[in-house]
Amino acid sequence: MGVLINGKELAKKLRLNLKEKIEEEGLKPKLAVILLGNDEASKLYVKIKSKACNEVGVEFEEFNLSEDATENELLELIEKLNNDKSINGILVQYPFPKQIRLRKVAEQIAPEKDVDGFNPYNVGKLISGYDTFIPCTPYGIMKMFEEYKIDVEGKKAVIIGRSNIVGKPMASCLLNANATVTICHSKTKNIKDELLQADIIIAACGKKHFVKSDMVKEGAVIIDVGTNVDENGKVCGDVDFENVKDKASFITPSPGGVGPMTVAMLINNVVKACEEQANKAI
Ligand code: NAP
């Protein structure tokens, strides 16, 4: 079996580093999270983020809106938080009820408080290779590459999925790091042929065990973003881990891989926002 990338342990180390930084520099970072409705998975994700923030010394405030809150109500709340100097970062927990447009929410969050990196201004900066808030999941994956000394330069990376949250920013990150990038999606023909050429596979299609052993080149790096719930209620990834692991040079489990890194990078972005806002105020 290839090297198992332990996202849980790595995230713990990063959280500890951030805690030390916050204490040493006397920072007072604060994150505001807006939760719409009663979706159980969303509530769980908010709880995980709240726990991680508390552990590290990031103040966390939760705002709850009902399932049928109007888009205007949400946009007004975001505007209030944009103007609140005690808040450094704003996150609206995804997915949203039907009446709320992701585009409107992303545009409303002030770019300097956009710790998810979804505001089009920050998206443009990422594509242009400028310093910005990198969306937490791709950022966590790039951090894994760095920590495990996986050099992506000149490598062929194939991403399955083109969402604004994972696939597209992942492609920008890899391109900025000099990889050659292919993005596959539901209309891509012959995905298997694409994957068989990949030195690095990022699976983010939300389909249980989509990546099978016969789709993977010997020695490939396999990153599994997928978090699917199987018929027994167990969380599983987009990669058929048991059958792929022996072919991979590095592989992440799911759960226990990308998920904890996503949370750690969120905290990283809140601390970055706090520092940048403090510097601007001087
Ligand atoms: P999403 O918005 O639903 O996007 C899924 C992408 O996969 C789309 O681009 C879709 O193509 C593509 N796709 C779906 N079926 C496919 C198929 N059969 N062949 C090829 N491509 C296919 O999902 P997301 O938000 O990016 O999330 C993806 C997965 O990652 C989900 O399981 C989600 O729960 C998980 N996730 C995990 C974390 C974490 O921290 N661990 C964070 C975010 C997301 P089209 O564009 O053509 O429809």
Describe the structure.
By secondary structure, the chain is an alpha/beta fold. The chain is 43% helix and 16% strand. It is built from ten helices and eleven strands. It has helices at 7-25, 40-56, 71-82, 102-108, 120-128, 136-147, 167-176, 191-196, 241-244, 258-281; strands at residues 3-4, 30-36, 59-65, 89-92, 156-160, 180-184, 200-203, 221-224, 228-229, 235-236, 250-251. The strands form three sheets. It has a six-stranded parallel sheet. Strands 3-2-4 form a three-stranded parallel sheet, with helices on both faces. Strands 9-10 form a two-stranded antiparallel sheet. α2 (40-56) links the parallel β2 (30-36) and β3 (59-65). α1 (7-25) runs parallel beside α10, α6 runs parallel beside α7 and α6 crosses α10. The longest helix has 24 residues, at 258-281. The mean pLDDT is 97. It binds NADP nicotinamide-adenine-dinucleotide phosphate. The site of NADP nicotinamide-adenine-dinucleotide phosphate has 25 residues, from α10.
